[in-house]
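Residues determine shape. Take a concrete instance:
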Amino acid sequence: EIHYGETSEHLIHRQHTIEVEYDPGSTIEFDGEMYPLTQIHFHTPSEHQIAHQRYPVELHLVHRNESDELLVLGILFDVGSPNAFVERILADTPRDLGRIDLERHLDVSQLFPSEKHFYTYEGSLTTEPYTEGVRWLILAEHPTISPEQVVRLLVLEGGNARDVQPLNGRPVDGL
């Protein structure tokens, strides 16, 4: 079960990503465990594939439970119409590296369709130290992002995606 709400804009322009720290209160309940949402960030291009297709952008929603276990929900974007949620982040992100805190609000739940289907597997972080034991949920439906928004993300972040990794026998389930 997903329970996301609004957050104030806590935007951090890091060297290789744009991150939004999420205010407390938004959670995912998965297999009886509650995972609070801590932050979101982008990768260009996607770090996951569906049916051998890589997407131009992937958004990671990072959750950490009381036992310090990670659950990351990935949203893959198709090229198409501009995305209002992404546009707000692009418009408000500092051009130079650093952080800005704004009173404006974001709500990541805007990106989700009414019917949600996911792929799930046990994997690792996609950035160093590549720690194993991360529960991944990948949204099967894909919001759109405009070609211009993809370019703007690339200018701000550079290509920051890890190469797609082999499954190495890991089962991928559909929910």
Notes: The first strand starts at residue 2 and ends at 3. The helical segments are 84-92, 147-157. The CA atoms of residues 68 and 88 lie 30 Å apart.
